[in-house]
Specification:
The structure holds two protein chains of two kinds. By secondary structure, chain A is an all-alpha fold. Chain A is 82% helix and 0% strand. Chain A contains six helices and no strands. Chain A is elongated, with a radius of gyration of 19 Å. In chain B, helix 4 crosses helix 6.
Chain lengths: 222, 252
């Protein structure tokens, strides 16, 4: 039996799709502004964040209305509850893109400390993880969600590499470079946090699809 | 919680029509168990088999076993009247005895069992009306007719009547379907309180009601028990796709 409720759930999914697309774009543009040390590009990402913030409010309101008016259960309930969590993660991802841009503004008037090698690897990974997490949500794809979760440790390793290099090879040897090194260190941290949020989304997708809790229980992925 | 009722391979028939097919279920004491399912799925027949009311219908019969406290209620020599005292029932429409006062509606079962002493009757009538959350509303008009009360009050009077004979189990057959939301909320609160002392089985069409009051939920479909589990599991992660389809309103 086709339910009017299905249309409402589909509308919610479309809102999350829109928010996810904007969050992906924010990451992409923040990384581009870093590569080019572009103040203009960074300012745009910071300004556009308002749209994502508003979408989060709209999605929260939609979810609360559906909970109150439809009193959903089972798969419907899991979908709405996870949508609320996923919208929070997407909003945090967009905030981290803003954080990256603020670091770009700090770096923009100085020459780069060193050519970027591991940070682009980490940013590529973050973009892939967010895209795959969103695709797994839209297509209810458990395998893809599982893949995202397994990538998280790679993000941690890359962040550690960047941190170690910047601290041991630059800051300790010549503390005067700290002003140019610390923003890069923070960018690696922001990117790794983006990967964490993508992981959260993937974990929520698995719960949404088959009610299996893999959060804090990675062994259940196997 | 200990098991109070064990149902094994229970089938029920109306003439040649099979209404229940090989039901196996274990009901724990002092818990609320909800029975849900579409019309005609056998919910009411199931609870009527638990207190031997099914056999009252012409051509109706039962096979299988229903153990109450370890004793098969269908074994030879068991008095169905005694079973119905132990396993009380509250019906869909409040059905106080129309010619009796509020007091006598509650006391009638005790009087039939031979209790005559006024002070003893008074004490039990007051106690059970209090348990049914009705005492404060009727204590000044105990001699008024039972049917002079509102629908919700009549239903609580029927609950008091069931409680008076000290049952172990109370069966509720859609007890709120004829009541307004406020009366429904009162009955639901009452059911939650009563489970401290009684084992309760409630048949309901209202899935939110099952979710609100019960600890376990059983889903019946076309005479079969499809799924039985903790209520929170049934309503968040049902195992059977038919349960999922029914509770999310895709059929039924």
């Amino acid at each position: 039996m086709e339910r009017h409720f299905d249309q409402e759930l589909d509308d919610l999914k479309k809102q999350l799709f829109k928010m996810g697309t904007l969050a992906e774009l924010a990451i992409f543009e923040s990384i581009e502004s870093l590569k080019q040390l572009s103040v203009k590009g960074a300012d745009k990402v910071i300004a556009d964040d308002k749209i994502i913030d508003e979408l989060e409010n709209t999605i929260d309101e939609t979810c609360l209305d559906l909970l109150a008016l439809r009193q959903p259960v089972a798969a419907d309930l899991r979908f709405i509850a996870m949508s609320m969590k996923i919208s929070t993660d997407l909003e945090r991802i967009a905030d981290l893109a803003v954080d990256i841009c603020q670091r770009v503004l700090e770096l923009a008037d100085k020459p780069l400390l060193k050519p970027l090698i591991d940070i682009p690897k980490l940013s590529n990974l973050a973009q892939v993880m967010v895209k795959d997490a969103l695709d797994s949500f839209l297509n209810r794809d458990m395998d893809l969600a599982g893949k995202v979760i397994l990538f998280d440790s790679k993000a941690d390793r890359l962040r550690n590499l960047v941190q170690k290099e910047l601290i041991e090879d630059y800051i300790i040897k010549d503390p005067s470079v700290a002003q140019r090194a610390v923003p890069l260190l923070l960018i690696a941290r922001h990117l790794e946090r983006i990967c964490d949020h993508a992981t959260n989304i993937a974990e929520d997708v698995i719960y949404m699809v088959n009610a299996k809790v893999v959060k804090h229980h990675p062994e259940k992925l196997r | 919680m200990e098991e109070l009722i064990r149902v094994s391979d229970l089938s029920a028939y109306f003439g040649n029509t099979q209404a229940l097919k090989d039901i196996n279920i274990s009901i724990k004491e002092k818990m609320v168990t909800a029975i849900i399912g579409p019309s005609g799925c056998g919910k009411s027949t199931f609870i009527r088999c638990i207190n031997r009311l099914h056999e009252v219908v012409a051509n109706a019969r039962v096979s299988g076993e229903v153990l109450l406290d370890g004793q098969d209620i269908y074994s030879a020599g068991v008095d169905p009247i005694e079973i119905r005292r132990k396993v009380g029932m509250v019906f869909q429409r409040p059905n106080p005895f129309p010619v009796l006062s509020i007091y006598d509606n509650v006391a009638s079962g005790l009087k039939l069992n031979g209790m005559r002493k006024k002070s003893g009757l008074d004490a039990i009538v007051e106690q059970t009306l209090k348990m049914a959350a009705l005492w404060d509303e009727v204590k000044d008009k105990l001699n008024a007719s039972g049917v002079s009360l509102s629908g919700g009050q009549q239903q609580r009077l029927c609950i008091a009547r069931a409680l008076a004979v000290k049952p172990e189990v109370i069966l509720f057959d859609e007890p709120c379907s004829a009541l307004d939301p406020i009366s429904t909320a009162k009955i639901e609160e009452l059911i939650i309180q009563l489970k401290q002392n009684y084992t309760i089985i409630i048949v309901t069409h209202n899935m939110q009601q099952a979710a609100r009051v019960s600890g376990h939920t059983a889903f019946f479909l076309m005479g079969e028990l499809i799924e039985f589990g903790k209520t929170e599991d049934i309503f968040t992660k049902p195992k059977d796709s038919r349960t999922e389809a029914y509770i999310t309103g895709r059929f039924g």
